[in-house]
Amino acid sequence: MNRLTQAQEDILLDYLDGNIAGTEKARLEDELRVNALLRSRLDELRSVHTIFQHTTLEQPTRDFTDRVMQKLDTAPAPTPSRWSIRNAIFLLIGVLTAIGAASLLIASGVFDGTTSISLDDSALPQTIIKQDLPALTLHGKLIVNIIIMLNIIVGWILLDRAILRPYFQRRMQA
Questions:
Q1: pLDDT of residue 130
Q2: Do 27 and 93 fall within a single domain?
């Protein structure tokens, strides 16, 4: 038996509380001498029981409810922005510069070519893989377009979170 039943748990708790007397108490004590799992569970419950007996519950002061109710109408203190607007503007300028540079490179045709990577030329032993492996084709223009789109998304998030939201929060508080 790896676990105790709920009835055994309840009997142990009643034993600790002193609610068991007579033959049932003697029978439980006999079973405790034989069953190591029951003994260890009783020790665990006894330690928890003593902790709870010596712990007092803290009570709030009498005017706690009144103080809470009075502060319900007050506005919470504004949380400071993690980013200053000046740093956010610099980050946004950096993102826009990266987008502009990548767009100019695409427009000039730098990434027009495709690159093919053959997996047959890899260092894999030919004894393990006996069939020909496919070649991967990478389109430079597509990859750079994806990077530009991700930069635009980051730029919009940065604009919203670090510049516009703090700006309008300050205007609402003023």
A1: 67
A2: no
